[in-house]
Amino acid sequence: MTPDPHVFVVIPVHDRIEYTLACLESFSQQTCPNVTVIVVDDGSTDGTKAVVQQRYPSTVVLSGDGSLWWAGATNRGVFWALGRARAEDFVLTMNNDTVVSSGYVDSLLSVAREHPHTLIGSMAVDMGEEGKALDWGLRVRWWIGGSVRDVPPVAPFLDSPIPDCRAVDVLPGRGTLIPIGAFRALGPFDQTSLPHYGADYEFSRRAYSHGFGLLINRASVVRSHADATGLNPRLQKLGLLEFLRSFTSIRSHRSLLYTWRYSRLCLPPLQAAVFFVAMSVRNLVSGVRDQVRLRRGGTEGNVRAEK
Q1: Each residue's pLDDT tens digit, 92-118
Q2: Is there a single domain that holds both residue 207 and residue 137?
Q3: Is the dihedral of CA 26, 52, 226, 280 positive or negative?
Q4: From CA 277, how far away is CA 259, in angstroms rounded?
Q5: In this structure, what CATH number is given to the domain that contains residue 22?
Q6: Which end of the chain is more exposed for a tag (fewer CB within 10 A), N or C?
C-alpha cells in the first residue's frame, strides 16, 4: 500500500513578521497531518527566526544573508525537503503574506491524486478587497505578450469555492503544489537568471516541456495581501523617476531585464524577441494607464516592499 504523501511547505521571508505569523497559524490548523512547514528567513531584521521558533517550534527555520530573494530562498527550502522526501511527496511553494483554510492542503492533494505528474495551482484572492480574484488561471498568448483569464475578476467563491480544475500555461509561486519528482528531474528554480520575479512561471513552463501537467484548482483558495507584494506601481502614485525605475527594479514585475530573461528561457529565439517587445509595450501602456487612474482619484494602496 502506497503511504500518504508528505507536503513540505516552503515560505521565503524577509521581515513582515505579522504576516508570517498569520500564515503559519493557518498552516498549523491543516486537516492534513503530513505537513512540514519550512520558513526561509532571508536576513530579516525583525526577529523573525526567534519569534517563529518560539511560537511554532515544529516549523523548520532556515537562514539566508538577505541576498537570496524569492527564488534563492525558495530553493534553500526545496533543497532541505529533497534530502528528506520520498518519491510520492510534494513541495508547496507559498508567500508569507497569505492565509489558507484548514482544508487547503487536503484540497490540493485530492486533485493531485486524480492528476499524477502534475503541478497544481491555487485560486488567489485579495484579502484587502474580499471577493476580488488575483489569480484564477492564465492562458498566455505567447506571440503577442498577452494573457487570458476565463472568469470575472470578482466572483462569489469565497464561502463556496468553484470546484473546477483548469489547464493553464503558467503557475505562480503563491500556492503551487509541485511533485518532488519535478525538482529531481528538472533541478531548482533559476535563481541566477530570475532571482525574484518570473522564476515560478519559468519553472512551470520547464516542467510542462518535460511532460508535467499544469492545472489550477479553484477550490483551493489562498487569501493574499495584494498590496504587500513586491513593488506594485498599480497601487501607488509614482513620480517620473520612480515610474521609470519600476522597469529596472528587481522587486518589480515590469523589469525589462527579467522580462527578457524569462522570454529567452521559455521560448525559441524569434518568439522570445516578439514576446519581449510585446510584453514591454504592454507593461509601459498599463503602467501609464494605472498612474493616470491613480491621479484621477483611484485608490492608492499601502504598498510595502517585499525583499
Answers
A1: 999 999 999 999 999 999 999 999 999
A2: yes
A3: negative
A4: 9
A5: 3.90.550.60
A6: N
Give the range of the structural domain holding residue 281, as residue numbers without chain letter: 233-295
- Total domains in the fold of the chain: 2
Instruction: State how far Cα 216 lies from the chain centre.
Output: 13
Residue 85 placed within a domain: yes
Q: Are residues 128 and 265 in the same domain?
A: no
Per the structure block, which three cell numbers stand in for 144?
503577442
Per-chain mean pLDDT for the chain: 85
Which secondary-structure segment (H or E) carries 220? strand 213-224
pLDDT at position 304, please?
33
Check residue 95 and give its pLDDT: 95
- What is the tens place of the pLDDT at every residue in 231-272? 454 455 666 677 777 788 777 778 888 888 989 999 999 999
Backbone angles phi, psi at 189, to 5 degrees: -65, 150
- Regarding whether 242 and 221 lie in a shared domain, the answer is no
End-to-end Cα spacing for the chain: 43
Helix (H) or strand (E) holding 65: none
Which residues are CB-neighbours of 193 under 8 A, at least 6 positions away? Answer: 199, 202, 258, 261, 265
Residue 147 lies in a domain: yes
